[in-house]
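Please review this one:
***
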Amino acid sequence: MGEQDNRPLWQPSHTGDLPITRFAREAETRAGRALGDYDSLHGWSVEDPAAFWDLLWDVCGVIGDKGDRAAIDLDRMPGARFFPDARLNYAENMLRRGDDADALVFRGEDRVESRLSWRDLNELVSRLQQALADFGVEPGDRVAALMPNMPETIAAMLAVASIGAVWSSASPDFGPRGALDRFGQIAPKVFIACDGYYYAGKTIAVADKLREIVAGLPDGMAVIVVPYLGRADEVAASLPNGRSLDAALASYEARPVTFRRMPFSHPLYILFSSGTTGVPKCIVHSAGGTLLQHLKEHHLQSSVVRDERVFYFTTCGWMMWNWLVSGLGMGATLLLYDGSPFHPSPEVLFDYAVAERMNVFGTSAKYIDAVRKSGLRPIEHFDLSTVRMMMSTGSPLAPESFDFVYEAIKPDIHLASISGGTDIVSCFVLGVPNKPVWRGEIQGPGLGMAMDVLDEDGTPMASGKGELVCKRPFPSMPIGFWNDPDGVRYRAAYFERFPNIWCHGDFAEWTRHGGIVIHGRSDATLNPGGVRIGTAEIYSQVEAIPEVVEALAIGQDWEDDVRIVLFVRLSPGATLDDGLVARIKSAIRSGASPRHVPARIVAVDDIPRTKSGKIVELAVREVVHGRPVKNMEALANPEALALFRDRKELAD
């Protein structure tokens, strides 16, 4: 262990002013004991979850009727219920402000800039709500959206939620089959889409795609086309029951938004699994569970308060969009961006941070690594004095990326690597504002989340790599899967491996600081010689090499065993010669272990990924073994899979 691993990269200061500190004081009163540090507060939150979530409701000022019971059947997983007597509306909790301060700020690459005040947002939601009601939208009906991350998308979602209807969205780069694999399962009453979008400086029309999608959705469905390229009327005219947003809202005047309060467990969102191994699962999330979990993560884990300015680089097809929206519930301003984060240059998001006085900068591990490899050192060019927190998710954040943030972006910043998923529309492990940041580590489990690491037999592991699990219920567990009336698929997805325990499918280990390191997905774990190896352990070594832009590792069946094959995408001008192969193997051997060293290293021009940017080891493994990939439409670049088929380098 090097010297840098013996001291934290960042230490919190002024912890007495943090929301989590004020919350802990209230918790001590309810618990009747001292909860002086995060670990003791977390311990109480999982020992007495009913008291914890009840206090969170009060501290965050949730609007609604709480009822007398905070939780029942906490010994059942699934089966536990939180706030079974409560009634609330998610949108009512988001629209608690109506003043002229910024609610939403938007940039669409270098083409579009706009902003909505809280007053503007309430008025737009009101008009959308009236239109949806006249389209016949009622509680429980689904509204689907193929939209960029723009203000109109958030307003439409809040209008849907205000009625008690269910929102489901994807980004406009989805192809017709990918969109229909998702929306076709849930039979929306209304479909909302943009008239096109911008990416990497290109203008991308979607009219032909929309016609194909609408043809595969229910007859009689209303279609609203939102202007982004200025072609909404034209595109709407080409669609059955189509109308532009302006036409749809023309007859409605703004008035106070009405909110239909529904049970805590009433559905709010349908999110979709990546679908790389079959038709995507439709994961149904509750309004109350989503609201409470997100308020906790914004306010307690991220210290977000009223008037802060929160950014997350995301599309509407990734759960981080749903997470970002909940920042409105703290009275924060949301900074939205749609398009390529590198157009017209790598500086674009840092320019945005400076111009809009960003406080929370959320992005992906891949983005941080790409900035590092671009040669940009933001610390030398940008005044990031307002940015107090940087968040990263999507894949494990490599130790070298931790170094880069503190050396080249900002030395005094709370860097929070976070991990959870679409399955829970939130995080299991994430930032802790009153604990140090250690190189390569996620700081700890979220409050109320009874995390552990288990071995193959279900025994807790104080050290070593195993399955990341949650041992007690939490509010943002899905209500279930759509079209799974008996819950068979839902239970099989999370609870079959360890009865009455949520098994998330991540390969992880505790650190000596009480943090977590995630080594990749369990189903992508490599098993050469029967030893389990996480793919992220390899990537963190390989992607630190300047010539390697990105890597993907699989286990190839070979001579009655498994051998590791590493695919690398190289930077322009680089060649995978014997010298580079030797350096890659040496880095893996010294930084991980001899068992991690691949038997074969192969250069490829591209690496397939999902729409949210995650590489797909399982799909590549299937192609290498000559097996079909079940759902190509789930991939952002399905053509890349052809690069892995029949490779002569893998035949001997």
